[in-house]
Amino acid sequence: MRILAIDVGTGTQDIMIYDNEKELENSIKLVLPSPHLFISQQVREIENDLYFNGEIMGGGKIKKTLQEHMEKGYKVVMEEIPAKTIRDKISQVEALGIEIASPEKEYKDYTRITLGDINITKLSEFLLGYDLEFDFDEIAIAVQDHGYNENMGDRDFRFEKFREKLKEPMNPEEFSFKGNVPEYYTRMKAVERSLKREGIEAEPLLMDTKFASIAGMCWDETAANLNSFIAIDIGNGHTTAASIEDGKIQGIFEHHTSSLTPESLENYLKRLADGIITNEEVYNDYGHGAHVINPISEIEKVIVSGPKRELIEKTNLDWHHACPGGDVMMTGTIGLIKTLEVYDV
């Protein structure tokens, strides 16, 4: 079975092409800039009015870059769907000075840019340029999706859906979708539409980047020999931790990385393990929240991943940098691959 796995993060998009007839370590791997960084660079290099089509994607630096472009005197027009990359509410997009495209106008002199987290055509051209086969049995993709509910803020809604899912201890791989992505996960739905638009009819496996990373950390050689531990992804934007015992998530906690100190992080992780962390204390500290089913017996070790993982080194916790398949950058992609291999999703 050949699997194309893509983990779209804030800093990089990590890509692995896996063939189960070969060793995992011999998989083809790419680490490329995240799509929002590439598009932001495009905008900075263009001296013209801009027209955006395409899909909802991770916004990252795009909003700030567009504001800077408009400050130069240029116009920015977006079709309604890709405009939700900036804000889910179109009125908030328009309030920034961005025009929503009208079918009555041509915009013929505008430079056009297509938004989207996934560009299979560009990836296939790159691989074929190296005489590499571009043929897969499965495609698995991870993006961070807060979900959208017009009556609830992002932080509240994201964690409400986590609580609904985690009603009992679960394997990390169960936080995945294949053909059953809820409509409120707008970024994952956009990935599905993008793939279909590029002629891929098979349903992809989709996961939130944080749960793909947690799943991958559990396949680290050190983690595989533990029974009771914490897996934590310390990302550029968000830090997400899961307390794990008997291979199942017992509790989760998520905060903004920039708001954490080594002391507060250590305190939160100990309270997560003890099962006494509350959603209120994290939310009131401007984090996303916490949800615990059971305490774990002990923290045998903290398995850590993510670009800001050095934060754990300043704590008094016993930590280990996850390196499944021998590559710290492929934790999320391996989580995606193992989810497809092990679970019938």
Give the H and E element order.
EEEHEHEHHEEHEHEHEHHEEEHHEEEH
Calculate the terminal CA-CA distance, rounded to whole Å.
15 Å
Q: Would you count the extended β strands for me? A: 16
Unreliable runs? none
Radius of gyration: 20 Å
**Which CATH architecture of the domain at 221-322?**
2-Layer Sandwich
Strand content: 15-25%
Largest sheet: 6 strands, mixed
**CATH structural class of the domain at 221-322:** Alpha Beta
Query: Structural class, from helix and strand content?
Result: alpha/beta
Average of pLDDT: 94
Shape: globular
The main sheet orders its strands as: 3-2-1-8-10-9
Count helical runs. 12
CATH topology name of the domain at 221-322: Nucleotidyltransferase, domain 5
Considering DSSP H and I runs of 4 or more, what fraction of the residues is helical?
25-40%
Layout of helices and strands:
Elements: E1 2-8, E2 12-19, E3 28-33, H1 35-45, E4 50-54, H2 62-71, E5 76-78, H3 80-83, H4 90-95, E6 99-100, E7 111-115, H5 120-128, E8 138-143, H6 154-165, E9 176-178, H7 186-197, E10 205-208, H8 209-218, H9 221-224, E11 228-234, E12 238-245, E13 248-256, H10 262-274, H11 279-283, E14 289-292, E15 302-305, E16 319-321, H12 331-342
Parallel strand pairs: 1-8, 4-5, 4-7, 5-6, 8-10, 11-15, 15-16
Antiparallel strand pairs: 1-2, 2-3, 9-10, 11-12, 12-13, 13-14
